[in-house]
Amino acid sequence: MEPRDLSSHSPYVPGRGVEEVARDLGIDPGNLIKLSSNENPHGASPDAIEAIRAHAEGIHVYPKAAHTDLIARLAEKWDVSTAQVWVSPGADGSIDYLSRAMLDPGDRILVSDPGFAYYAMSARYHHGEVNTYPLTRADGFAQTADGVLESYDGERMIYVTSPHNPSGSVMSLAEVRALTEAVDPETLVVVDEAYGEFADGESAVSLLAERDNVAVLRTFSKAYGLAGLRIGYAVVPEAWGDAYARVNTPFAASELACRAALAALDDTEHVERSVETARWARGYITAELDAPTFESAGNFVLARVGDATAVTEAAQPEGVIIRDCTSFGLPGCVRISTGTRDETRQAVETLNEVFADLKLGAHA
Ligand SMILES: *Cc1c(COP(=O)(O)O)cnc(C)c1O
């Protein structure tokens, strides 16, 4: 037998892992600086790790209290009701829950090109179709309501990524509001704030008080350093928050993930330090890298390097793993996650040497 026709589905291409690269190149994983997946270079909050140890004894029981507690804590943080918080395995899980809640077969979504691959993947799993709106290098990937509306044709959902992955650009709250007002009332604008902690502007959660066609995605994978646990959430309008009970996968957010997230939320020192490091590092990369960069509000910087695949490959044996953005639809660009101060300085030095070597090679 065969699965259904999956030819329109493309596999997700993750950033390369340390063990994988080390094994390929026969080098010690301890000597590699991994700046390819926008992870937290400070690791997880020590309090989150402690919470995992403390709750390890309870993992034979389905997560109930922990899930309820996390939802209550997030509702308090955002000043919304508990029905408006949809906890999920990563923000990716929330993307699936929104697809399940919104899409009938054949419904279309609108996503940015270049952009984050999972929106389209999730829509296709749910028998939806995908249209795109362009973001362009020429204007630094500027994000405006009008820019999206030029491509808008009544799609059921529009994804706005702010800060945008991989470019780092943002859509201001005023522009997001304008977009929610301009579209059909049955079009949901989803604002993906996976990198929201690193940006200056106000969260689009504030729009939920006025509008019922906007939802916001947040995650513990980036600023909170819990990528390996898989925990995130959506904040949705009161009007249809109760759909969660009908679409969520039972117990998909695990006991340990919920407990760690609760502890991480209370460790403000760790998040603040993580954000401060990312801000310093994106400034450092912008100033010191011998390649043009785009202004970023995230924990990464997009740089224009010419042959991105050659640069990414040449950097690995030198100990630096970055992300070739060809799979994002941006050949010629690499995305460099912000590391600790030491890692960032080392990576920039190495990359500058790689650029110089490749240039010499090209002229030889
Ligand atoms: C990392 C990321 C996410 C969510 O990742 P999870 O680990 O599933 O929480 C969502 N959107 C964008 C744009 C991302 O870069």
Automatic annotation (TrEMBL):
Keywords assigned by UniProt, alphabetized: Amino-acid biosynthesis, Aminotransferase, Histidine biosynthesis, Pyridoxal phosphate, Transferase
Catalytic activity field: L-histidinol phosphate + 2-oxoglutarate = 3-(imidazol-4-yl)-2-oxopropyl phosphate + L-glutamate
EC number: 2.6.1.9
Residue numbers of N6-(pyridoxal phosphate)lysine PTMs: K222
The organism's place on the tree of life at top rank: Archaea
Domain Aminotransferase class I/classII large: 31-351
Coiled-coil features, chain-numbered ranges: none
Pathway listed: Amino-acid biosynthesis; L-histidine biosynthesis; L-histidine from 5-phospho-alpha-D-ribose 1-diphosphate: step 7/9
Record-linked InterPro entries: Aminotrans_II_pyridoxalP_BS, Aminotransferase_I/II_large, HisP_aminotrans, HistidinolP_aminotransfase, PyrdxlP-dep_Trfase, PyrdxlP-dep_Trfase_major, PyrdxlP-dep_Trfase_small
Molecular function in Gene Ontology: histidinol-phosphate transaminase activity; pyridoxal phosphate binding
GO terms under biological process: L-histidine biosynthetic process
Cofactor (UniProt): pyridoxal 5'-phosphate
PANTHER family: HISTIDINOL-PHOSPHATE AMINOTRANSFERASE, HISTIDINOL-PHOSPHATE AMINOTRANSFERASE 2
Family annotation (HAMAP family): HisC_aminotrans_2
Family the UniProt entry places it in: Belongs to the class-II pyridoxal-phosphate-dependent aminotransferase family. Histidinol-phosphate aminotransferase subfamily.
Protein name, UniProt field: Histidinol-phosphate aminotransferase
Source species: Halorubrum vacuolatum (Natronobacterium vacuolatum)
This protein's encoding gene: hisC
